[in-house]
Q: What sequence folds into this?
């Protein structure tokens, strides 16, 4: 792997940074304060080609790699995690459709996402099935040419604004292997019996829409089934190997943004007649923060490069996911500590990185689960 970005990748990074720095400040305060999805910002992101860059040309996208997608995410999160998530997560679920969907499904669902004509979500988590994905209890019963879906989903990104959602549901309840009971079915949100309740009062990423879904006898044609029945769990595990790399980039971006706030602060504020940056304690903090960020960036670049070369290394992805998320929380905390009382004031922007970073240790695989994945890959199952 070449650790030097290509000229095209450098241009993508520069364009993403220019867009985020120029546009996000117009939306991020209101979106955070009022928990409002910045629809106009998302539209601009689509128009400029930042959304769904991993989608292949034959399905309406530019056909770039997962690394390019991650580089954009890093730049967006560096400026504002909430706005960055809102713009790019509008395609959440498209990766699974592209990996396992039929040609007709890919053409139907993917192009509108790139064009800014549709938003997608994925309904996996349930009130009693978070880390235990195979414990999802939502059911889909075949009735003639339709599936009838019943169940509840929780903490669903884009849940109340999506046009269609991938729903993980039980289609093979008699299967002895609990990992072969589920399937993925695309559900259009305007179908009768589909309800979404927007969740409010989140700690961070408040610009991103999060909802609880209720599906009551929702009738969906069997043509909406992704792949073959019983493969839903496996499909989502492969999906997560892709999207968790994206989360790593989010973490690096948030950490980089918090670090830059800390650097600016220690170079502009004085105590005891000296700039804060002259004190060894702060120098050590800056050095440790920067080193961890570089280590995380190297991890996720490698994982993304492997994905773009057709290799899914679930052990490496799990390593990157927990370490990057933990680093984002660590750096945000240290940056706030360096700011002292100023870090508690909204106008300095550090408290927002502090609030936004925590989700990176939780969603798309809690860090404890990722560590279990790593340990089992190294040791095998111990009992």
A:
């Amino acid at each position: 792997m070449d650790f030097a970005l290509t000229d095209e990748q450098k241009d993508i990074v520069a364009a993403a940074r220019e867009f985020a720095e120029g546009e996000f400040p117009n939306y991020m305060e209101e979106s955070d304060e009022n928990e409002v999805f910045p629809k106009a910002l998302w539209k601009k992101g689509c128009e400029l080609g930042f959304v769904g860059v991993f989608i292949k040309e034959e399905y309406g996208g530019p056909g770039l790699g997962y690394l390019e997608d991650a580089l954009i995410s890093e730049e967006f999160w560096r400026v504002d995690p909430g706005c960055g998530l809102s713009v790019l997560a509008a395609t959440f679920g498209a990766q699974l459709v592209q990996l396992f969907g039929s040609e007709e499904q890919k053409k139907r669902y993917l192009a509108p996402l790139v064009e800014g004509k549709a938003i997608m979500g994925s309904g996996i988590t349930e009130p009693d099935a978070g880390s235990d994905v195979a414990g999802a209890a939502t059911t889909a019963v075949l009735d003639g040419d339709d599936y009838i879906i019943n169940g509840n989903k929780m903490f669903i990104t884009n849940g109340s604004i999506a046009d269609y959602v991938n729903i993980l549901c039980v289609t093979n309840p008699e299967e002895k292997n609990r990992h072969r009971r589920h399937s993925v079915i695309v559900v259009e949100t305007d179908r009768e019996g589909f309800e979404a309740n927007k969740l409010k009062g989140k700690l961070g990423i408040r610009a991103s829409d999060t909802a609880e879904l209720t599906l009551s006898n929702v009738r969906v044609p069997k043509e909406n089934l992704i792949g073959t029945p019983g493969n839903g769990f496996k499909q989502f595990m492969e999906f997560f190997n892709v999207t968790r790399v994206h989360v790593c980039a989010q973490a690096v971006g948030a950490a980089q943004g918090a670090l830059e706030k800390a650097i600016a602060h220690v170079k502009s504020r004085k105590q005891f007649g000296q700039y804060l940056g002259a004190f060894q304690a702060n120098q050590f903090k800056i050095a440790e923060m920067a080193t961890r960020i570089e280590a995380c960036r190297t991890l996720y670049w490698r994982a993304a490069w492997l994905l773009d070369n057709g290799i899914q290394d679930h052990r490496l992805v799990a390593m990157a996911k927990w370490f990057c998320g933990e680093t984002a929380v660590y750096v945000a905390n240290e940056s706030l500590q360096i700011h002292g009382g100023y870090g508690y004031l909204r106008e300095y922007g550090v408290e927002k990185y502090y609030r936004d970073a925590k989700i990176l240790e939780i969603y798309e695989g809690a860090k404890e689960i990722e560590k279990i994945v790593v340990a089992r890959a190294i040791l095998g199952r111990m009992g």
